[in-house]
Amino acid sequence: MRVAILTSDNREGFKDYANPAPRIGVAPEALLQGFAALGNQVEVHVVSCLQNPAPSPEKIADNIWYHGLHVPRIGWLRSGYLGCIRAVRRKLREIRPDLVHGQGTERDCALCAAFSGFQNIVTIHGNMRAIAKYYQATPGSFHWVTAKLETVAIKRTGSVFCNSAYTEGLVAPIAKRIWRVPNALRQPFFEQPLAAPGNSPVLLNIGEIFPRKRQLELLGIARNLHHRGLHFELKFIGAIPSKKTDYGERFLREVAVAQGAGYATYLGPMPVRDLINALDQASALVHCPSEEAFGLVVAEGLARNLKFFGSAVGGIVDICHGVEGAEVFPNLAALEEGIANWLKSNCPRPQTAKQTVQSRYAPEVVAMRHLEIYRSLV
Fold it and tell me: Mean pLDDT over residues 138-159, rounded?
């Protein structure tokens, strides 16, 4: 079977056009690792649009080809991604895939799939309509336009892959057909041997420093726990948006105070191997967003047998169901008490979470599920 995967190349987002290797997003990258493991069962063509030409390899695995398409800026959001759609259609007529799969509605990929002229499906990674509602997006703003384009893509495509019950509930009223398919985890989270944790309790929070991720609220919880005399350190890992934001600047001020008091610190972003080492050295992961389509970081932490505390929202609930050591809470006050009780009970860690997560989210498991659905559709 020949499949075209339409996905963003993050060389575009970072304007990293000199980089000779594509920078695929985390969830699509893990899926491609799974397809690579399937060998000649599937032939995959990855297609990405870039505003400037970039050196690229012909193949990124034995059965996976890469096609980077130069699309001038006028062909992107300001024109409803018309230039991207036309460039992708031309390339797909050369590839002649059995199926086209658009990865995400955040930018051009879902629209390009929906208007590809071939049988197509779309995966929802982030719910742009929900995000636009959260930010109370005004007409003409990025989130408002993206939410409108997401609706167009969902209504036009043949099937929608939803990564959680939450996403499915948002999409069901307008989609023709829905499949529940989780995101995959990248292979290193299963391959790298588990390391022994440190002696003192360390809590990790991983993700972009952003209002929806509620790092400031988590700092407040840490401050309360510290004032209660509980011993721990909370470490934040993740990037602060390149454009200065009030939220990011306030976070840096407050985490500096917390670092001075000895209960929290900010480590910045990390490459995947360092991130895995940080997970192994920690005692628990805390993730308390106000909205979450899936929650890949939750599965990543559990894949390292880490204790988990989080919000009972979105896909986090699905991931934690039936996994040892995973707890979700209806509000931040309950989350604080859950962490406090765990700290008082000598910080036990799960022993079987990794096996459960691997059986659900290993790249080859998720890729095989994709292939089964592809075959049924074709």
Answer: 97
**Which residues face 307 on adjacent strands?**
284
Q: Beginning with the edge strand found earlier in the chain, give each strand of the sheet holding 264-268 in spatial order.
A: 264-268, 233-237, 202-206, 284-287, 307-311, 326-329
Half-sphere exposure of 117 (CA within 13 A, CB side): 12
Q: Which residue has the tokens 């023709």?
A: 176
Q: Where are the beta strands (DSSP E) in the chain?
A: 2-6, 43-50, 59-61, 64-70, 99-103, 120-124, 159-162, 178-180, 202-206, 233-237, 264-268, 284-287, 307-311, 326-329
Per-position b or e across 1-36, b if 16+ CB within 10 A of its CB? eebbbbbbbbbbeeeebeeeebbbbbbbbbbbbbbb
Which residues contact residue 34 at a Cβ distance below 8 angstroms, ignoring those fewer than 6 apart? 184, 362, 363, 364, 365, 366, 367, 368, 370
What pTM, to 2 d.p., does this model score? Answer: 0.95
First to last CA, the chain: 9
How many C-beta neighbours within 10 Å does residue 266 have?
21
What are 321's two structure tokens? 């169901």
The pair phi, psi for residue 177, each rounded to 5°, is -150, 145
d(CA 264, CA 273): 22
DSSP conformational letter for 9: B
- Span 225-276, pLDDT tens digits: 999 999 999 999 999 987 678 999 999 999 999 999 999 999 999 999 999 9
Phi, psi of 340 (to 5 degrees): -60, -45
Asked whether the beta carbons of 92 and 47 are under 8 A apart, the reply is yes
Angle at 298 between CA 370 and CA 309, to 5 degrees: 150
Tell me: the pLDDT tens digits for 116-145? Answer: 999 999 999 999 999 999 989 999 999 999
CB 109 within 8 A of CB 7: yes
Beta bridge partners of 66: 46
8 A C-beta contact, residue 347 and residue 284? yes
Cα atoms in the 13 Å half-sphere on the side-chain side of 187: 11
* 306 CB neighbour count, 10 Å cutoff: 24
Q: What angle do CA 84, 90, 93 make, to 5 degrees?
A: 135
The residues facing 328 across adjacent strands are 310
For residue 229, the 8-state DSSP code is T
For residues 227 and 197, the answer to whether their CB atoms sit within 8 Å is no
